[in-house]
Amino acid sequence: MVSDPIYPLSAWELPVNFNWCLTPITVLRRDLLLTLRRPAELMTTLFFFIIVVSLFPLGIGPQPELLREIAPGVLWVAALLASLLALPRLFAADHADGTLEQLALAPQPLSLIVFAKLVAHWLTTGLPLTLLAPLIALQFDLPSSTVWVLVASLALGTPILGAIGAVGAALTLGLRGGGVLTAVLVLPLYIPALIFGAGAVEATLGGLDAGGHLSLLAALTVFTLTFAPWAAAAAVRISLD
Amino acid sequence: MAIHWFKYAAPASFYGLAGRMIPWFTGAAVVTTLVGLYIGMVLAPTDFQQGDSYRIIYIHVPAAWMGMFTYLVMAGWAAAGVVFNTRLSGMMVQALAPTGALFTFVALWTGAFWGRPTWGTYWVWDARLTSTLILFFLYIGYMALRASIDDPRRADRAGAVLTLVGVVNIPIIYFSVQWWNTLHQGASVRPGSSSMATVMLTGMLVMAFAAWMYTIAISLARVRSIIIEREQHSAWVGELLVAEGHGRPSGTSEALPGSNEQGAR
């Protein structure tokens, strides 16, 4: 195992056996590398986010008070849709070329590998969305105090979107109409994240403390990140049958 | 005396058991529906605030209860399927889903018609209404997933994962929606918050019982169709068809005319 050429990092000779975490780290590095080699996909998701958000003022009207009022909901729903569209990136390519089967055969727990994929996915989807949000908030004339809450809520909430989405994406691997089906499965489960995330920003807009919302959102993130990789791993195994 | 609990986990033996149980549950459903409707529509007095429109409660509340409860039963069967890997569990989940979705839809529909005369609107974003709507979406998601998977065993397992993820999320969704609701709009109108007369409560409980009996009867009937459809190539179905005079010579493994793996709606 240690001298296995497939695991470039396994040259680490540690007194405690940490080999179980080498595969997940390799998967994380690989996924990051693959996404960064094809930055167009990443940019498409981000531009989708910007375009959807920009459609709302055009549909509703440019009154600043109105825009400020709807901004938290619009930004969050757009983030929801953008991460939904990014979900096929998680497993679809690996499923198509057989990599996913090899990962499922690895001696390390599949849930850990799925978790590594989720981290890579968040770094290339959730994090850029979060960093882009302040810019969009300017379009909606959000006061700067709320912008920070918006960034915090997206930073806490986007991992939930990826983790729950991973279950839906894994369940629909290789099925007809996969994309729309994933949306139908996953969007109802996104509702708590939407409520707490948009609620935090709205509370700040209304002069209230956002701490309660953010704490609940953080609790939800921890809960989801604990259980979703497990369910997603089960779903991946089902799809590989 | 050991009881062979798993004997009826085999679809072939459950098929017969379900067939023997269906008449009893159907009869109970018909009788309790008639009794419940009689209590609700004739014996129960007119409400002094809402007039006769409150009588929709005899459909609405049992349907809402049944819609919620059916999802829990589905999750129970899904968990049993994951743990014991029994084929019947997945079939039961599949058989229950349309009835659960139907009851949830009936609850929303009758709720709209009840809300119009009492609240003056068909729909409010009340916590209960919203979470019932989301429950309806979960049912739709399950059925959509099932419908797009051709292999019934894979559909069983995928559906089980989705149902279990859904049932873990239901309390979270419910409480988040409730909290969202209290933040957005003050206390909203709640049906049935006033103390109910005994006769009204009796009528409602009898109707709830009728909904249970109906759900059991219809899901057993549906699971029988699912069993026959999925086991159509097995020997016992061939013998059954010959015994019932459908004239398929035993030994051939030809599919039943007009049947495919689309499942029972």
Q: Can you characterise this structure?
A:
The complex is a heterodimer of chains A (241) and B (265). In chain A, 80% of the residues lie in helices and 0% in strands. Chain A has 241 residues and is mainly α. Chain A has one domain (20-240). In chain A, helix 2 (39-60) packs antiparallel against helix 3 (64-86). Chain A starts with 21 loop residues before the first helix and ends with a helix. The model of chain A has no long low-confidence stretch (mean pLDDT 87). Chain B is mostly helical. Chain B is built from 7 helices and no strands. The chains are: A mainly alpha (241), B mainly alpha (265). Chains A and B meet through helix 8, helix 9 and helix 10 of A and helix 4 and helix 5 of B.
From the alpha-carbon coordinates, what is the Rg of chain A to the nearest angstrom? 19 Å
Query: How many β-strands of chain A, per DSSP?
Result: 0
Number of domains of chain A: 1
Largest sheet of chain A: none
Which regions of chain B are unreliable across 5 or more consecutive residues at pLDDT < 50?
185-189, 250-265
Beta strand % of chain B: under 5%
Helix content of chain A: over 70%
Q: Helix-strand pattern of chain B, N to C?
A: HHHHHHH
Distance between the termini of chain A: 27 Å
Name the largest protein-protein interface in this structure. A-B, 28 and 28 residues
Number of helices of chain A: 10
- Structural class, judged by helices and strands of chain A? mainly alpha
Largest sheet of chain B: none
Overall, the morphology of chain B is globular
Query: How many individual domains of chain B?
Result: 2
Task: Please provide the ordered H/E string of secondary-structure elements of chain A.
Answer: HHHHHHHHHH
| Count of alpha and pi helical runs of chain B | 7
Q: End-to-end span of chain B in angstroms? A: 41 Å
Q: Residue share in helices of chain B?
A: over 70%
Pick out the low-confidence regions of chain A: none
* Morphology of chain A: globular
